Structure formats: structure tokens, C-alpha cells
Known about the structure:
alpha+beta; Aldehyde Oxidoreductase, domain 3; Aldehyde Oxidoreductase, domain 4; 25% strand; Ald_Oxase/xanthine_DH-like; Molybdopterin-dependent oxidoreductase; molybdenum; AldOxase/xan_DH_MoCoBD2
Amino acid sequence: MTTRLFGEPVRRREDARLITGQGRYLDDLGGGALAAAFVRSPHAHARILDIDVSAALDVEGLVAIYTWEDLPGALAEPLPLLIPHPALTHGRTAYPLAREIVRHVGEPVVMVVARDRYLAEDACALIRVDYEILKPVVGIEEAVRGVHLVHEDVPGNIGAHLVQEVPGPGGLTAREAIDAAPHTLEFRLDVERSACTPLEGKGVYARWDADDGSLRVYSSTQTSTSVRMAIAAKLGLPLPKVEVIAPDVGGGFGVKIVHPWPEEVLVPWAARLLNREVKWTEDRREHFVSSSHERGQVQHVRAGFDDEGRVLGLEVEILHDHGAYTPYGIIVPIITSTQLLGPYKVGAYRVEFSSIYTNTVQVTPYRGAGRPQGVFCMERTMDRIAAHLGRDRTAVRAANFIQPHEFPYDQGMTFQDGRPLIYDSGDYPEALRMLKELIGWDSFPETKARAAAEGRRIGIGVGCYVEGTGVGPYEGGHVQVTSDGRVHVSTGLTSQGQGHETVFAQIAATELGVPIEKVSVVTGDTRRFGYAVGTFASRAAVMSGNAIALACRKVREKALRIAAEALEADPRDLEITDGMVHVAGVPSASIPLATVAVLSNPLRYAFDEEAKRATQFAGPASDDRPPVAEGEEPGLEGRDYYSPVRSTFAAGMHAAIVETDLDTAEIRILRYAVVHDCGKLINPMIVEGQIHGGVAQGVGGALYEKMVYDEHGQLLNASFMDFLMPYATEVPRIETAHLETPSPLNPLGIKGAGEAGVIPVSAVIASAVEDAEGITIARMPVSPSDLHHLRLER
Ligand code: MCN
């Protein structure tokens, strides 16, 4: 194969479309559709006494109003709990429209359908809902007191409780190891809530075909196949009668993996009932108050360590704020607790978490999914150990690293699926060496002294992480070569900006030996690929990438078989270069892949120019062989699936240099360096883009992003005026270096990269600010006012 594009920094093919306004997002579709809007609860906790819609009925253009009472069959049931876990003893999900009780501000209560969104909103404003206000439970500490309950039948507001204990040498428990250690530390950390906030909110648009009895649904989703299954189940439709298509999706960052969102089943239901097209697009306020949040945790840490800083025992107790419902199970605290140890091996480890209900919007995974909290915990521990011992912070980390010869490394933890958590490969000492060189760690004391002489306060910080990526159960790829020589690739998972149209084309072009211009890629369209899981957990490259490669290999094998017959050669002597199948070393003995595609189908039409050319290769018809040989299928296409035994572990290390303003306490990031290892790189430019985006999001989490609820459960900053995100001016230039330790688990040797950038940023910035200021940070994010108060406390 000489058409080698795997590993090349190919420019993103989708960008020309996306950055010139040619993208087709949800709200670009369905221009003539009716609009849906929702009356949402203004209270955090209340009983619905009465819903009076009479005043809204006169609104011109009103088409329908629905409450829970109107919902039939399975639609009237609570939404599914997507990933149950035995420890989630009290899992609870919402009804698509509230039934009797509302449990957070923003919960949908009434659905209105009207000629356009303005009229629908007008009608919503005229609907009167009488509530009996109940005591809201806000904040983890209030919730664990258990005096007031979010769900009457969930005592103590505890939805789940899970303990995992990994004994140390000699069977010592973490408690025993800590008590016997030469040094101990104990502290508390507070991690605030944040929200995914993709540029494009959620949205759904549905068309009912009454003749065919089928639904076509467009959804701004990360999981079109699962949305399809949910709609079919909730509406009682056979699966083949439902198509779900994710058009261009303007970001997801986790929030669009929940399936179905209430609107995703209500809008198609209304479309069928009314036999009209219906559409809903989320506005920003709806996104903040009624989608989902993440991060929010309180962590209590105890660590015991030796004079080198080696952790002999670690105990972590996590209180995880789950909001009002658990549609996505307890995956977030499970990830925090099981991946918290990162690249380190500790003597004995005990982790315990409680998943707590509060009258706030539900919590589901947000980019990094529980890892930023875990890394914050582990890296604060490393820094505090270093401070306690007066040792260099990188030396303490190095003393605890899993070594390259120790892979596969079993951390002793059990993951969500009940399987052990085993790291497949990595080289953490080398990554740290590269990082220190990149940022100039060893010479920083002089830089800092020079800055101090100029009256400036600067500090350096470091943070390390691992990330289980490419989770199963499976993903598939379909590849078809048509008689024009084009290669059509499809996979069922969706894209939200990760550059899949480019990377999957790179894989197919490399595997099939064709120019990338010949390859087109379709994702997230159940018409093209029905069995898929979705895009989350940094899994697309590993899962669909490998599935597409495997499907291409099938196609390649078939192509070589057919070409060998046409060229009267041995298939083992053939290769494909630039779309031509030829005998290795004899380019003249060749046949276009396009012609091979024609030969693969005995039905050759006169209107196909390639078919005419193919006759020279077709050979005489045979009396004793059917046109389609036994065991063959017509066409040059193949489908395959990739299903891994376990996740593959990417890793990385970040360092930052910050300056803290002496007067305003503003924190400025002067330099930011990343060493990242996601195994074999398919496209280094795209991976860097993913890391840049992730770090930018991480800077938000480190310095700005925080959802603020008052004691009544009202979200005080549900707009971009009040919820701060970093602008380009706050995101530093990011210096990136790659380390490639291939994964032994998959054919392409790749690991995921999509979340990595965000994971350690809060820990790194906290580390750098501590270094600049000589203070201790126990909270993320840390704002200028937090820093000001920490200075006063010093
Ligand atoms: N890649 C590569 N080589 C590797 C690994 C990855 O070239 N060894 C490329 C992939 O081919 C893909 C990109 O890097 O183009 C990210 O790959 P992967 O790690 O598989 O992540 P996913 O494609 O599964 O994307 C999901 C991930 C997650 S979980 C969140 S959240 C997130 C993220 O991606 N949301 C995003 N990145 C995002 N980027 C954008 N623009 N928008 C989002 O909503």
C-alpha cells in the first residue's frame, strides 16, 4: 500500500462546509414544521395541583396542548434508566412530562404545539399551573442530612452507595496502610458543577409518513441508533418504521448521549398524532435549567506515604451530587472512583461514593466524565505530599508511576460492566520526561526568581492522568466501492465536530489504496447503518476506526480475488495503489478498482460506462458456474464490527505556567504544555485540535465555570451573561508533543483522544497557582475572588 494516509495531518474535510455556513444543523431543517415549546417548572420542588390551559386555547395558530394525562402507553412511563448498576439501589428517572411532582426548575410540565415558536411560547405563557411548593433540597450537605427528601421513597437522598477496596501488600487495608505509614495527610476538596454548553443546543424534528406508517426523525444527538430504539419502544412502532438521522451537530460534549430526552419522544409522538411535521430546538436557558450538569462532588481524602512520597495507602470518600434523576446511572462517580489512581500504583486503596439526589437538574457525563474530579483529587494529593516532604512535585509523581514493563497493569478495580480495569500499555516516565523538557521544568526556579525580581508572581504546575477510552460493546463499519471507483463508508455512530469525515476516510483510503478524494463518509444515519452505540467516551476512533478498517480488509480481499482472476495472477502478488489493482512491481498489469467493482456484480448495465470497459476483463461465461459463485455476494462491499474485550488506556501529562496579578488576583496562563499518548495517531492535526478544545474547556473548569443555585433551587447563572466561559483571549497557546505507545488490544493500535485535553486542567492550574502564591487550593474552579480570600487566609 503506498496510498498511506493513516498518521498524516490531513486537513479536516468537513471544515470547508462547516465554517462557510454550509452545515445543516437541526434548526436548518423543517422550515415549514409546527413548533413545539414547553411550560417548565419554575420551582425546584413542588406538587402540581392543577393545570389550566383555557386561556391558551384562544391563541391564534395553536395546534395542541399536552400534559402527562394525555400521554398513552409506554410514553406515560418514566424515561429509561440507561445503564443500571447493582449499587444504584434507588435509581429514578423523570416522566417525559411531569406527573404530580416536579423535582427541579426547568422540568417539562406541558407541551404546546403551534404554527411557530413565537405562538407556542405565547400559549405557554398563558397556561396556569398551580403548585404546592415543597421544601427543596439543594447542595450535597443539605441532601445528606436527609431531613427533606427529593424522592419520598429514597431515604437519606442516597441513590447509590459503592465501596471498592484494593488491599495492599500483605493484605493490608487502606486504613491499616495509612495508619502504619511514616507520613499522613487528610483533606477535603470541593468540585463545583458545570454544564456541557455546546454551541448548538439539543433539538428534534419529526415527520410522520401516514401512507407508510413510518417516522423520520432528525435529532441533534450523539446516539442516533439508541434514540431510534427509544422512539420505537415508546411509540410502539416496529424498529424498521423509525429512521433517526443526526444532521451536522454543533457540539455535544456528553449532554446529547442521553436517550431519549423527553423532547425526543414527545415531538415524534405529536408528529404522528397530528400527522404534521413538528420541531423543537432548545434555547440557551432551557439548556442550562433542563438538560444536565456534571462535576459537582465533595471528596474527603486520607493518604499515607513514605519518605520518597510513595503512596502506601489512600482512602477517598466521594459525595456525588446527582441532581434530581439518574437517567445515565452512576457512571460518573464510577469513573471518578475507578480511574482516580491515574498513572500511579498505590499500596492499598479504598474508595467509597454516595450518589446523592438534590432538587437540581440531573447529572450525566460531560467531557471527561468524572475524570477531572478524580484527577483533581489524585494530583492535589501528589502536590500535598511533595509540599509535606519538601520534594519536587514531579519526583513524587515519578516515584509512584506504573513502569512500562508492568503492562498490562491491573488496578484491582471493577468497572461499570463488572470487568476488571486493566491498563493495556503506556510509558509514563517517558511522558513526564518529555513534558519537563517541553515546559522547562528544571530551569523554572531561575525563571521564577527573575520574575520575582521584576515584582511578578509566577508559578508552575503539573498534572497527570489516564483515560479509559474506546469502550464497547461494539461499533460497525460498512464499505462499498461503486463502479465509478468511489468508496462509500458508513458507520452508525454520530459526529459532533471531531473530524470523523476525515479520519475515517484516511483509514479507508489507506486500507484500500485509494485517493482520499474518492472516499465519502456517512455517520449517524440509521438508514445507512442500523447497529451502533454512539459517540462518547472517546470511542469513535477506536471502535468505528477499527470496524471500518476490518470492513475495508474484507473488501480489499474480495477485490484482490476478483482482480486476480481478471489479471490471471495470484491474489498474493497484487497490491492496490492509487485506485489501481496491479501486480506488485508491474504497474502495467493493472485493473482499476472501479472495474473490479463492476466485475463484482454480474448484472452490468449499458448505461454504466465502466461496465463497458469491464468487458475486456470479464472472461467467457462458464457453463458450470453460477454468475454469483457460491459463498460470494454481488457487489464490492463489506461490513464488519469491532468489539473489544476491554477499554484501552490513553494517558497524558500537562504543565502550565501562570502569573497571578498582585492587585486584582487575576490568574493568567502564560504557557501551557501537553504530552499526550493516544497510541497510534490517525491524524495528529485532529488530535491536537481535540486537545486544544479540551484544554480550552478545562480552562473554563479551572477558572470560571460554576453553576450557582440559591437555597430555593433557582439557578442564578442560566445564561452566558452569568455563566462564564473562557474566550479566545483566556485560552493560552498550547504546546503539544505526542508519545505513541500503541494499544495491543486493537488492530490499528489506537487509543481515544477526544476528552483528554479537559481532564487534568483544573489540577494543573491549581498546582501552578499554589506554586505562584504559596497557598493551598482545595476547590475547582478557583476564581480571582477565591484567590483573594485565600491570600487573606494565608
Ligand atoms: N483520533 C486520531 N488518532 C487517535 C485517536 C483519535 O486521529 N489515536 C481522532 C479521531 O479519529 C477523532 C478525534 O481524534 O477524529 C477524537 O477521537 P476519539 O477520541 O475517538 O473521540 P470521539 O470521536 O469518540 O469523540 C468523543 C469525544 C467526547 S467523549 C467528547 S465529550 C467530545 C470530544 O470527543 N465532544 C466534542 N470532542 C469534541 N469535539 C467537538 N468538536 N465537539 C464535541 O462535542
